[in-house]
Amino acid sequence: MVPSDPPAPPLRRRGARLRSAVLAATVDVLTEHGLAGTTVGAVARAAGVHETSVYRGWGTRENLILEALSEQADAALPVPDTGRVRDDLAGYFGTLARLLATPQGEALLRLSAERDDTLPDRRLPYWTDRLDRATVMVRRAVDRGELPPDTDPVLLVEALAGPLFTRALISGAPLDETLATRLVDLVLDGASAPKPGA
Amino acid sequence: MVPSDPPAPPLRRRGARLRSAVLAATVDVLTEHGLAGTTVGAVARAAGVHETSVYRGWGTRENLILEALSEQADAALPVPDTGRVRDDLAGYFGTLARLLATPQGEALLRLSAERDDTLPDRRLPYWTDRLDRATVMVRRAVDRGELPPDTDPVLLVEALAGPLFTRALISGAPLDETLATRLVDLVLDGASAPKPGA
Questions:
Q1: What is the pLDDT along chain B (198 residues), one digit of tens a residue?
Q2: Nearest residue of A to residue B169 by CA position?
Q3: B160, A195 in Cβ contact below 8 A?
Q4: Range of the domain at B121
Q5: Nearest by CB to A163, which of B138, B159, B186?
Q6: How many domains does chain A have?
Q7: What does the record give as the DNA-binding region (chains A, B) (predicted)?
Q8: Going by C-beta distance under 8 Å and a sequence separation of 6 or more, which residues neighbour residue A56?
């Protein structure tokens, strides 16, 4: 990278606008028509651009879908760093619960449960990527001495995300505000621990 | 029930054989063709019986599907009662993990994630019924004083089942033998508790 780069020329600024329009259109088409209905043609029509522009920018339909979903989720699901693992987890999984309670959030979860023969391992890595990122909250807590060194960050994150995914996909039980907090308390303190003041 | 009932007459025994053949065929058709492909006609063909016999016995396609799935799951997923909640939960969720690792188990889970406009609330209550039944292990532990009276049995069961469902539906991570035991230890003891011998 050259520090003295001049401001982006008009062509590149048009490129940035095209990029965000195509990525937003991809999320719209995915939410409305599912993975199978998300073709490069459908996205190009929704974004009002030529198909060739999409192929030029992303190469394949799969690259396009993955980039659109990752970008959207990273914006919607920031990983907090408050210095207290309980607050970090309650914040992150509270946001996740609210996201899954929206029609778009549920649709994105359903996409990850679909099998698609055009994808490398037939699964969208969208949610698994999000859960991988969430383990950093647990790793930081271990580094601070807040959690024991033998803590399994993946298992802890799965125990928090799994019930939220299950409510969205299987049971339809409400993804209410307090659910994430109650799950964090359960997983950090354990069911068999005496409750403070109980 | 009348204790002096005579042995079932031939007609009724034929009925029992028909019933089990139709229910087994229903599970086969569901596993192979999904919810949408499970019509009364397809089940009747697979069982080698007349469609009218299926309608006479079950009334609707929905009743047939629900009875077939419930019967199968109750046989495959018994609720243990060892007197120790840790062993009960590890046994039950270990069996569930092994069931979900089979193609048939994964197919049954996918059915519950599908939406079907012909069902009362558009969801198969198959897995939610199973989780409801599993809460009895937690309730018994509260009655024995093994867990505190303010324990939430539904939340505890969700924290154990959710990660298993997530691995089967979303991440594809292995449903190995030790997973259920590690989850039970996490949810009963809590991540922040010091481990014995650690």
A1: 444 444 444 444 468 889 999 999 998 898 888 777 889 999 999 999 999 999 999 988 888 888 887 787 777 888 999 999 999 999 999 999 998 888 777 877 877 777 655 555 556 667 888 888 899 999 999 999 999 999 999 999 999 999 999 999 888 889 987 999 999 999 999 998 765 544
A2: A113
A3: no
A4: 77-190
A5: B159
A6: 2
A7: 39-58
A8: none
